[in-house]
Amino acid sequence: MAVPWKAVGALVLVLIGAGSTWHLQDWRYGKQLAEQARLQAETLNQLTLMAATAQQAEQDKRLALEERLSVSEQTHYRKLSDAQKDQNRLRDRLATSDLRLSVLLDADSAAGCDVPKATGAGGVDHATVRAQLDPAHAQRIIAITDEGDRGMIALAACQAYVRGVSH
């Protein structure tokens, strides 16, 4: 049986053409996939940069807040320390009789009391009735005012903290 070489040649040419068409389609598909991969990588890079920028901005905000709170805490501590020093000086002056606390009395309610009416040469009240407090009572009053001062300083510090956090 004779092999028709023309038919075999035509078949080979058809197969080569089909193969090259297949290869051309495969190349185009590969190029599309590569382009999609490149676009996806660019998108991921942009998202990463945006996330890093947002994270840095948040970190900067946090650091600024921490700095403001630190300054506020230092101010609070200084005010508290100053108030305690003032209270200690006042207590020492009361204990050494360098200072005496007195109260003004209503002239009508003090009519039956034997309290001197003049305050002395250094006084500022003219002819008013005053009663000197017992040193122990004066110490208790100073302790109460000390607690009140510390409470007011702590309240101011809390308010400053809330203002700092809410901004």
Q: List how many beta strands DSSP finds.
A: 2
Strand order of the largest sheet: 1-2
Major sheet size, sense and barrel closure? 2 strands, antiparallel
Instruction: Provide the β-strand percentage band.
Output: under 5%
Overall average pLDDT: 80
Kindly name the structural category.
mainly alpha
Shape: rod-shaped
**Terminal residue distance:** 98 Å
Contiguous runs where pLDDT drops below 50 for at least 5 residues = none
Order of helices and strands: HEEH
Helix content: over 70%
Instruction: Tell me the number of helical segments per DSSP (H or I, 4 or more residues long).
Output: 2
Radius of gyration: 46 Å
Overview of this structure, please?
Helices cover 74% and strands 5% of the residues. The model has no long low-confidence stretch (mean pLDDT 80). It has helices spanning 5-95, 135-166; strands at 102-105, 129-132. It is mostly helical and 167 residues long. The protein has a domain at 58-110 and 128-166. It is built from 2 helices and 2 strands; from the N terminus they run αββα. Helix 1 runs antiparallel to helix 2 (135-166).
